[in-house]
Amino acid sequence: MKIQKKIDDIFKKIREIEKDDSKVADNESSQVIEKEKLRRFDLYHAIRLEKYKMQGGDPTFGNLDAQEITSEEFEYYLSHNLNNYTPEERYRQRKEHYYFHPSYIEMEKIDDWKERAMIKYCTGEKCVLGCPYYDKNSRIGDEQVIREWMEDKDIVEIDDYRKELGKELIDSILDN
User: Fold this and answer.
1) Beta strands in 56-166 (DSSP E)
2) Using DSSP, how many helices (H) and how many strands (E) does the chain show?
3) How high is the mean pLDDT in each 10-residue block of the chain (176 residues)?
4) What pLDDT is stored for residue 22 in this prediction?
5) Which residues, including other chains, have CB under 8 Å from residue 75's CB and lie 6 or more apart?
6) Nearest 5°: CA angle at 34, between 29 and 38?
7) Which residues have C-beta within 8 Å of that of residue 77, sequence separation ≥ 6?
């Protein structure tokens, strides 16, 4: 029930974003707003990178972008994902990315090449029975996308980063 309320709230925000977007008559000003928003998101990435380095992470091997996101980024990217792709396109894209399918991930955990050659796993040409993408055609609905995004991402606001990493550091990044 709690997840359904969050899903309903997100749909409401997306509809508000769509209404706001339709009210913008001047395409140039819309592009300026878009560029400014993406510039801000680049700064948020820099903040997450600093946090990752402070945790001992090597930025050449990763960052926190896959785990943490601000609510502004969450709403922006989720609405684009929902509006730019049909449920059928989402399914097709996931089917094509077989290296993220469960059987392929399990196969990669096996060290022994002989054992690896004996098991069945998804390839770029076909999926194994039991794979969520086994069917030739299907769809990934909006509710599933929203649920996955909510499960996969921690929403962390700039003020949370200020508390954790220090106001001076965060403000110095944002002032760039």
Assistant:
1) 68-69, 154-155
2) 9, 2
3) 74 75 66 91 94 89 86 93 95 94 92 89 92 95 94 92 93 89
4) 60
5) 10, 13, 14, 17
6) 150
7) 69
Q: Which residues contact 48 (CB under 8 A, 6 or more apart)?
A: 63, 64, 65, 68
Residue 63 CA to residue 66 CA, distance in Å, equals 8
- Rounded (10°) CA dihedral 77, 132, 134, 121: 100
How far the first Cα of the chain sits from its last, in Å, is 42
In angstroms, the CA 104 to CA 136 distance is: 18
**How many residues in the chain?**
176
Q: What is the pTM of this model?
A: 0.69
Token readout for 20 is 């706001």
Q: Report which residue type is found at 38.
A: L
Give CA–CA dist 57/62, Å, rounded: 7
- Single-letter amino acid code for the residue at 142: D
Residue type, 114: K
Residue 176: name the closest of 85, 4, 31, 50 by CA. 50
DSSP 100: G
